[in-house]
Structure formats: C-alpha cells, structure tokens
Write a sequence for this structure.
C-alpha cells in the first residue's frame, strides 16, 4: 500500500531533550515536506526537500533540522525542543513538479513540557 | 506570493441543513491546483478533492459539491443535508504547479448538531 509513515504518533517530552520524528514513504517520491499545524493557523511548512541531499527552509524553520540522505526517509529533528514546538506535525511526499499535491502521513502529536 | 483565506473560523449547523465553506485564494501562477481536506477529530488529513486551474467545471460527489470560480479566485465547498459525521475541520489549500509547494488556509471548524 502506497503510504507515508510517521513515527511516533504521539510523543510527550521535556524541554531540551533532543528528539527525532521519522518519516518514510514507499512511493519513490522525490519531494518531501514537513508541516506543523496549530489552531487558527492552518498548516505551515517547516522544511522541504526536492530530492536526496537537497533541503530548504519553509515558513517556520526555526528550531528544526532535517536531513535527506535517502529518497524514502525525511526525519525531522528537534535539537532542543521548547514548549512553543508543541504541535501536530505532518510529513508529506509527492512526485515533484506538477504532481498536484501531497500524500500526507497520519500526523505526530508532540507535547513539550 | 500565494495565500489561502478561509474567513469562517467556525460554523455550527443543525443536521440536514446545507452549509457552504468559503475559500478565497491568491496566486500569480497561471497553473495551479486547489484542494479541500477534511480533518476529523482523530487528526488525520482526509483528501476530498483536487482541482486543476484549467478546469472550472463544478463538481458533485454525493452530498459534497465544489464551486470553482476563477474570476473571483474562490473555491467554495458545499455540504448538502449535513450529517453529524461531517463535523470536522476543513482545510482549503493551493499548490503551485512549478514548485509543488502547498499553502493551506487556517481551516473552518464545522459542527453539525443532531
């Protein structure tokens, strides 16, 4: 089944403790992206990657890192999480230019206390 | 710059009422896609529809219909005879053909009361 898999689905952590949210897609998509969703703000893009070893900042990149060492994986790294990073996170992938939208993962609900 | 505006933050209706969710977008691209997603309380994003900017035909799928009007840059979503299961947050989104970036509106929370 074609899908984007995020792990974990839920995570509660403490301020400053490094964490990684994994994202993997099995569709050989070139384009991958991370979004965060906050009430009243919709989904905002954190980082995106147009291919292996090519990443770029989205609208809200501060406090996040990503890497794209292989086509299928695009982990989101929070080196020193803070409470304002408490949010619902979505990973997404697509074929690329003109693909007309993303396939989204199921989401990761992160709470930083 | 691309922008999607969903002016209705929350809507509450009684079951069987019709309801329209508004979406207005801004883009300089000539080729783009418009989307609607549903987010039920469980949190996942459920794809509802994708529209190419060249195709202005309205679409109907069961109780759902979409009205795409390029002249007013709007892509409104109507639910006919609403049901309690339609209660969710609905997002309108815009994607450029060239860079595939996807911009979302802030969402409209629809509550359908029995």
């Amino acid at each position: 089944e074609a899908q984007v898999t995020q792990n974990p689905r839920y995570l509660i952590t403490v301020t400053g403790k490094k964490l990684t949210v994994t994202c993997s897609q099995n569709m050989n998509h070139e384009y991958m992206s991370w979004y965060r969703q906050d009430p009243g703000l919709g989904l905002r893009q954190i980082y995106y990657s147009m291919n292996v070893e090519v990443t770029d900042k989205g609208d809200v990149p501060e406090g996040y890192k990503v890497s794209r060492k292989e086509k299928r994986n695009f982990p989101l790294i929070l080196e020193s999480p803070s409470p304002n990073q408490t949010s619902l996170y979505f990973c997404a992938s697509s074929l690329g230019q003109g693909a007309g939208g993303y396939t989204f993962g199921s989401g990761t609900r992160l709470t930083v206390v | 710059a691309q922008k999607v505006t969903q002016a209705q933050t929350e809507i509450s209706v009684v079951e069987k009422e019709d309801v329209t969710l508004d979406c207005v977008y801004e883009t300089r691209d000539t080729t783009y896609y418009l989307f609607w997603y549903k987010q039920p309380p469980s949190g996942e994003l459920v794809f509802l529809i994708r529209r190419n900017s060249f195709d202005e035909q309205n679409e109907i799928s069961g109780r759902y219909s979409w009205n795409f009007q390029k002249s007013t840059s709007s892509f409104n979503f109507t639910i006919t005879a609403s049901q309690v299961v339609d209660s969710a947050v609905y997002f309108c989104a815009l994607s450029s053909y060239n860079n595939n970036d996807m911009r979302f509106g802030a969402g409209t929370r629809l509550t359908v009361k029995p």
Notes: Chain B is about 0% helix and 55% strand.
